[in-house]
Amino acid sequence: MNADARSLLDVRSSLKVKWYRSPIERETLRQIMQRSNLRGACQAVGHLGLWCLTGSAAYYMFSQELWVGFAIALSLHGTVGSFFKGLATHELGHGTVFRTPALNKLFLRIYSLLGWWNFHVYAMSHTYHHRYTLHPEGDREVILPKTPTLKALCLLQLFTVNICFATETVPMFQTIRRTVYNAMNRFDTEWHKALYQAHPEARAQAVRWARILLLFNALVIAGSFMAGMPILAVLISGHLFIGNWLRYFVGLPMHCGLRENVPDFRLCTRTITLNPIAEFLYWHMNWHAEHHMFAGVPCYKLAQLHNTIKDDMPAPRTLIGAWREMRQTWRRQQKEPGYQFDTPLPPTAGTHLTQDTTQKDDQSLESSIGDLAPSVLS
Length: 378
Fold this sequence. Notes:
The protein has one domain (34-350, 363-377). The chain is built from 19 helices and 2 strands. It has helices spanning 3-14, 26-32, 37-63, 67-81, 84-94, 101-114, 119-131, 152-159, 172-183, 190-196, 200-226, 231-236, 245-251, 265-268, 276-281, 288-293, 302-309, 319-335, 364-367, and strands spanning 272-273, 317-318. The model has no long low-confidence stretch (mean pLDDT 94).
């Protein structure tokens, strides 16, 4: 067993982060945590429906040889679909979207197939991310510092086809390569190797799903060409790599530039405000500090949660304000490598230094991460 695997086993037994959570009445929290099949369907079916609509528009424009319209529709289709991987699948993986567990599992698999997404690997990794957010010993899903780049070559890929730009996006080369590696029972990062070193049964599940992903996309591509409609391969299997710009701009602020090794989600995650369309596509993860603090709350109720505890929370940044903050932090880090932005809290806020130390550590309701954790990590 390598050092990485040993350290992860040690983390689970030795690293106990006593997270600060904003005071909230348990009955209020219990009510906010109630899941709804109707609201879940509005989110999950609505996103799929929008993707089908943009895909149909792109297909029509292509068939009519309306090339300007096709380029616009294809870009919109990719923008909508780029949120399948890691956003739609993230919430469905938590199991908090639908009240009926089977619906969460069904839509998780649908979105994962369309999003080249191995939800087994992500469940392992993301469980550590929630338990040890920005504590490098246990959270290697998010590694700081991140660079909020605006370089021309990166922007070109974000607004067209993303070949290899990997920061908070969906790069074609890395996504396909990783799926092929996983299908061959290989993992291409030390983090993923460490996750599975002590869990061969869980590893086998990830390998099987990678093979299903390859088979599904191979059938889509082959079927499209056999039917004389290769554009369908682009719209179904290739959509994910087109128009990643919005995903990048709204996704990077989650943790970029913030503090490590602090037991306070308000200081290591960032909440931002978005317009209703972007928030819908982002599955409401702009309320990111709230999501980390009470991860069992359905995504469509995070704004309600924020309003309930807002006196204890930092003021949400705007998207432009968050990017300005990240860029200023990044420039300062070029001169001071150890610098991290310290989010100011309102005068009414409590802190992890003043919270009631007599309360039980991370009670189940408050610390719930839904149904995310695989059985081997439960």
